[in-house]
Amino acid sequence: MTTTPTAPERGWRTIDILVTVLIGVAFGVAFMGYSLFYTAIGPVTALFRPAEGILTGIWCLPAILALLIVRKPGAALGAEMIAAILEALLGSHFGIGAVISGAAQGLGMEIGFAVFGYRRFGWAPAALGACLSVFFEWIYEIIAYFPEWDVFFKGMYLVFFLISGLVLTAGLGLLLTRLLASTGAINRFAPGREHAERTAV
């Protein structure tokens, strides 16, 4: 992924909308299984509940993938909301909370890339977007789910959130985008073109 500032393309193409929706739908279905994973590891995380935060970064992947590929303001929020709404409609035990989380995560990602004017799509905006995404989610969760926790538990929960955001959101998001670009699947998008330029003989 290039870190060279580039002017964002204006206007949404039909393919931009389709890919954003596709990312949202794919993750919305996948999130149903991931939410069950939370339940399955409950006995382990019960030993130290804040450690559960290490899993949070996966929930933010639709947002970062959509922005890294489509590179349009609103792509992160759109993909994340589609994923969250579909997850809720499919019967996730998080219910309406999934939709609220989707909004928080998508908004955080948008702000992170907006700081760079939607002109940079390397590690710095990805890391900032990921950290803001999980931070907004942390605020929601300590209010909605864990208001009784003491300051230490809430602080450790945030630490795990940030680690997860940097590794599972920013790191994995950049890696997946590079892998998709290398397959030629996103040649009609900037990451695909950049990959072709790098590998051109």
From TrEMBL:
Pfam families: ABC_cobalt
Transmembrane segments: 17-41, 53-70, 82-103, 123-146, 158-181
Alphabetical UniProt keywords: Membrane, Transmembrane, Transmembrane helix
Protein name, entry field: Energy-coupling factor transport system substrate-specific component
Source organism of this protein record: Helcobacillus massiliensis
UniProt lineage: Bacteria, Bacillati, Actinomycetota, Actinomycetes, Micrococcales
